[in-house]
Amino acid sequence: MESLVIPVLILLLVGAAVLLVARAVGRRTSGPRASATRASATTAAGPTPSGEPVELARAAAAKLTEDQHRRLYALIAQGQAMAAIKLYYEASGEGLRASRDAVGALAAHPQPFTPAAPEAPEHDDDDAPERFPYRYRAIASKGDVTREVSSNMLNDEIYGRIRTLAKSGDTEAAATALTKHSDISLKQAREFIALLDD
Prior knowledge:
single chain, two-stranded antiparallel sheet, 8 helices, 7% strand
């Protein structure tokens, strides 16, 4: 019986040593993964150098076309993070770290695709009125008196606003707007507006 005690003790010591080595190796291999997971979770959930993650997601989504937006979210849904980062990197032209942060924010805070808003056309409040490729003719008459204004700075919308000003009683503003969008004098514009204000 005493002869079995020593081999059993050796067997227990070897088993404990193997267990300790296995734990140490397990910690070493899972350590970088766990820290990388924590880092990506921090990037996705916490503030980034460029601001809040929701704002980062909105800004990132605005840089994508509709097709790129759809493909990127398909890659995120399939768990292909590296392919999604590569797609965003190529689409946006930003660096790898910024692309990684943007994709993390887009994954954490999904954004719908919103097409870029068209630029607002220039209105008559701007300094230089827009010139159109055609000449617009505006005609006003009262009794035997008829006046005509022809200009490539007028269109239906602008002339409609001028008429609205004239009919509301603000004839001076209407005359000023008409001179701004045509080549007539203020006196001629007042004569033209006088035919509109009834």
